């Protein structure tokens, strides 16, 4: 290849890279994910969709698809290729809780019971992976419990966080 062609090829590549980099860095806004999760579970105004504020997903060019994977977890997907999939837990707001008797207060302190759907979280360096699971025991915030991974059916030990998710412990 002669010099003018090499120069032209480098010039074209240099002008195309900033546009490609800007498109790759465009992140999906979190509010449409929350809205899709709430709509999938037909939640009321007191329900909160629990999406981590630091979550960065590629922007979806198509409308989000969401289905209920359990009574309290929505499966939100981006149908783009390659796309992404996110399990979003929902939590009732504090104002929606009725007054309880003392026996019910002790029972309410147990945040997760056997069979409840939970979101498993595993962090490796700066990357966090979330997946759906089912509690195999009872636990309060800070407690340790076993969870069955919905997709692999493996038993994983984790610590229950205050938001209801389970952080995998090694």
Count the E strands. 9
Q: From the alpha-carbon coordinates, what is the Rg to the nearest angstrom? A: 21 Å
Count of DSSP H/I helices: 3
Judging from the principal axes of the Cα atoms, what is the shape?
globular
From the N-terminal CA to the C-terminal CA, the straight-line distance is: 55 Å
Give the overall pLDDT as a whole number: 78
- Helix fraction by DSSP (H/I, runs of at least 4): 10-25%
Strand content: 25-35%
Taking the sheet with the most strands, its summary is: 5 strands, mixed, barrel
Stretches where pLDDT falls below 50 for ≥5 residues? 16-24, 94-100, 103-108
Structure description:
- This protein has 170 residues and is α+β, with helices and mostly antiparallel strands.
- Helices cover 24% and strands 33% of the residues.
- It has three helices and nine strands.
- The strands form two sheets. The protein has a five-stranded mixed beta barrel with strand order 5-6-7-8-9.
- A hairpin with a 2-residue loop joins β2 and β3 (73-78).
- The longest helix has 23 residues, at 3-25.
- Residues 16-24, 94-100 and 103-108 have low confidence and may be disordered.
